[in-house]
Structures are given as structure tokens and as C-alpha cells.
């Protein structure tokens, strides 16, 4: 798999596929590398946390795609690949001679995935886009935040993550289809499409009612009670997602009267009388601390949790969520495990995120570029200055211009 993408959506997709066992070669500008290498702080031994988060399991080759020799080498790499992933600015891949039509002419069986900000046919199809702007444009911000507060961005670049998930899924489907037809496929994924499809029931509610959805803070528009409640020392999230769970909740609270109240008999009743019920539940939850309520609710079979911080959540999950990789300059590197396991495949060995151009000589040697040719390419700055380095060297990009033509998507 040849990864020509950068920042988040594309690299996240290829990392997931690397987690599943794909061999991923990440192509970066030979000096500047992926933008996220310099998105600091925080960092570990000069390696940015952002880059480390989405590039495990890959080999890195530093290659100047804007140069004719760099393009030719990229096409040779494409010839030996099953999949190419790119998220160039619209028209960028064509200017480099690496768009779908140009590459597939040489490799008809290739699965070529393009990630863009907007889908084909959209009025802004030629525009670049970043996650934050798409969160605003898609309506995601409009439904996020307190009911009486301003719209809010989700605390992570969720649209990019959704686009990466969509891309990895579609790539696997295209590879499966290729097994049946022998033909490649042009997979296209957009940030806006990923955001809109990710609105699921909220989008369907809007279409059915022809009404703009409103913000509900930590509550749910169609389920009650399904929200965070303040406790004596914090907050507890309660997800009583059906009538049986609601009655269990009333038992834990020792409030049989709420279970018997006709206003709250069914979920639809509780939605109609939301505030009357929430007011009474809020009074109850304020009487104990978070840990006491969490333990009682879970013992009663009700999904509930304290509102954790990110670090607390990771530490609580422990080895089920975190694995430690041996990084060449960071040393032991804790990273979040993929969300899936394949019981029949055993544990796949995952390499740490690569240093910039770490595998340039190794990868080029595999396609027949000998040491003398590599030295000549290196002398012309077409490949990474040295692939036997042990640390990435941060480079200012203020005057360097956009690597690889400046890509679409990703924040």
C-alpha cells in the first residue's frame, strides 16, 4: 500500500489497514515530511504526538514528488502496490502526474483511494477543506454544545476520523471486488460526506420533520433519561436506553413512584415530560458522590460512568487500550491500540511510527534502485538526505511552501 496522504484522514485510514497486516509505505517530502511532524507541543524526543498517533506500522520514504525522477520512482512504487491513498488538493495529483487516470493506465488492477473535502458534483468540489470548517458546514457544530450555549466543535477532529474509517472500509471492499473481477477501483471519500452520513439519526430526524435539530448538551433528543447528572462531587453519565432500564434506575434510586407515574411510563412519555422527570432525578443524584452512584447504577445493571478525563480513561482501560512500542528515538512509546481484534489471526506485530525517510534506502533497493543511484538522487535532494539518521530534525515550513502541493483535508 502506497500512502501519499498526510495529516489525519488518509494516514488514519492507512494505519488501520497496517494494523490489519497491510504493508504501508508512507511517502513524505524528503525534508519537511508530513505536516503533523511539526505540530507541537506536545512532543517526545522531537517526535510530535500528533504524528505518533496516526502512523504506526508504516515505513517512511522521503521522496520529492514534484521532481520528474521522484514522480518516476513513485510510479514504480505504484506498479508494485495493491492500493494507493492520496488526499492532495483538487488537481494536485494530476499536476504531479499521479492522479487516478494516470496511475491506473499503468496499473489497471490498482485500488486508488482519493480523500477530498467535498464530493464530486458539490459546488465546492474544487476547494480544500479542514475538519473544523466541515464540522461547521455539516451541522455537526450546530447540534453540539449546551442547549443555551453557542455551537461547539467536537474536541477531536472527528470528521477526519470518520473519513479515515470510511476510506479503510471502502478500500477493503474494493480489494474484495478485485478478487472477483481482476479490475481495480477508484474509491472516493469526502470529509463532508463522512460528516453528513455520521449524523445518522439526527439527520433522519431533520429530514422527517423538516425542522432544524437543536442542541441537547449531554442529553439525547429521543431518549430520556440519557444524560449526565451532577453529583455531590462531579457528574455521572446515565444511559437508561429503554423502559426496563428506566425501571431499574427507579429501583436504584428507591423511587418507585417515578416508575409508577403515568407521565413517565414509556420512553415517548418521558421525552414529552422530559423536564419534569429530569428535575426530580437531578435532586436525587445530588445526594451522593460520583463513585457511589456509579457503583450502585452498575450493580443495578444500568450503563453509567463518571465523566472521565482522557488520561484517566486511558489509565483505567490499561492494557486493553494501550500498547507499548519500541521507538528508535523515543524509546518505550505508549500508544492507543486499534479498536478491533481478530481472534483467528493472533496478535499482529506493529512497528512504531517511522522517522522521516527512515526506510528510504530499504524501499528503493526493493524496486531496484542501487546505492549509486540513491546517492545521485540524494545529491539532488530528491530523496531524504540520509536514511541512517536516528532522529527527525524539525524544519521550519514558514517559507517552504506546501508539501506535495498542499492537500485537501485534514486537521
From TrEMBL:
UniProt cross-references to Pfam families, sorted A to Z: CoA_transf_3 (PF02515)
The protein, known as: Acyl-CoA transferase/carnitine dehydratase
Biased composition annotated in UniProt, kind: Polar residues: 386-396
Biased composition annotated in UniProt, kind: Basic and acidic residues: 401-411
Transmembrane segments annotated in the record for this chain: none
Keyword Transferase carried by entry: yes
Highest taxon in the source lineage: Bacteria
Region (Disordered): 386-411
Keyword Transferase annotated: yes
Key words, A-Z: Transferase
GO MF, any single term: CoA-transferase activity
Amino acid at each position: 500500500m502506497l500512502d501519499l496522504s498526510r495529516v489525519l484522514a488518509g494516514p488514519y485510514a492507512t494505519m488501520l489497514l497496517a494494523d490489519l497486516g497491510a504493508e504501508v509505505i508512507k511517502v513524505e517530502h524528503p525534508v519537511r515530511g508530513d505536516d503533523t511532524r511539526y505540530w507541537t507541543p506536545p512532543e517526545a524526543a522531537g517526535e510530535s504526538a500528533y504524528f505518533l498517533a496516526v502512523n504506526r506500522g508504516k515505513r517512511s520514504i522521503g521522496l520529492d514528488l514534484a521532481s520528474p525522477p521522484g514522480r518516476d520512482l513513485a510510479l514504480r512504487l505504484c506498479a508494485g502496490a495493491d492500493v494507493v491513498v492520496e488526499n492532495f488538493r483538487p488537481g494536485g495529483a494530476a499536476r504531479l502526474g499521479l492522479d487516478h487516470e494516470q496511475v491506473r493506465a499503468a496499473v489497471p488492477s490498482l485500488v486508488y483511494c482519493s480523500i477530498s473535502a467535498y464530493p464530486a458534483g458539490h459546488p465546492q468540489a474544487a476547494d480544500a477543506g479542514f475538519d473544523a470548517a466541515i464540522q461547521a458546514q455539516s451541522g455537526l457544530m450546530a447540534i453540539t454544545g449546551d442547549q443555551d450555549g453557542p455551537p461547539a466543535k467536537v474536541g477531536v477532529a472527528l470528521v477526519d476520523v470518520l473519513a479515515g474509517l470510511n476510506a479503510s472500509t471502502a478500500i477493503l471492499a474494493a480489494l474484495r471486488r478485485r478478487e472477483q473481477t481482476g479490475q481495480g477501483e477508484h474509491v472516493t471519500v469526502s470529509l463532508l460526506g463522512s460528516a453528513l452520513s455520521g449524523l445518522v439519526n439526527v439527520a433522519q430526524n431533520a429530514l422527517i420533520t423538516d425542522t432544524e435539530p437543536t442542541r441537547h448538551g449531554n442529553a439525547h433528543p429521543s431518549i430520556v433519561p440519557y444524560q449526565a447528572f451532577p453529583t455531590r462531587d462531579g457528574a455521572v453519565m446515565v444511559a437508561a436506553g429503554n423502559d426496563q432500564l428506566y425501571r431499574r434506575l427507579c429501583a436504584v434510586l428507591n423511587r418507585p413512584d417515578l416508575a409508577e407515574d403515568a407521565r413517565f411510563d414509556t420512553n415517548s412519555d418521558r421525552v414529552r415530560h422530559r423536564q419534569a422527570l429530569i428535575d426530580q432525578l437531578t435532586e436525587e443524584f445530588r445526594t451522593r458522590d460520583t463513585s457511589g452512584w456509579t457503583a450502585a447504577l452498575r450493580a443495578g445493571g444500568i450503563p453509567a460512568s463518571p465523566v472521565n478525563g482522557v488520561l484517566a480513561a486511558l489509565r483505567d482501560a490499561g492494557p486493553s487500550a494501550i500498547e507499548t512500542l519500541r521507538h528508535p528515538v523515543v524509546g518505550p512509546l505508549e500508544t492507543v491500540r486499534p479498536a478491533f481484534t481478530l481472534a483467528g489471526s493472533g496478535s499482529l506485530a506493529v512497528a512504531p511510527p517511522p522517522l522521516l525517510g527512515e526506510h528510504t534506502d530499504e524501499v528503493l533497493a526493493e524496486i531496484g534502485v542501487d546505492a549509486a543511484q540513491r546517492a545521485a538522487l540524494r545529491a539532488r535532494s530528491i530523496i531524504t538526505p540520509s536514511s541512517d539518521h536516528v532522529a527527525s530534525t524539525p524544519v521550519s515550513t514558514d517559507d517552504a511552501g506546501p508539501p506535495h502541493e498542499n492537500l485537501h483535508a485534514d486537521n
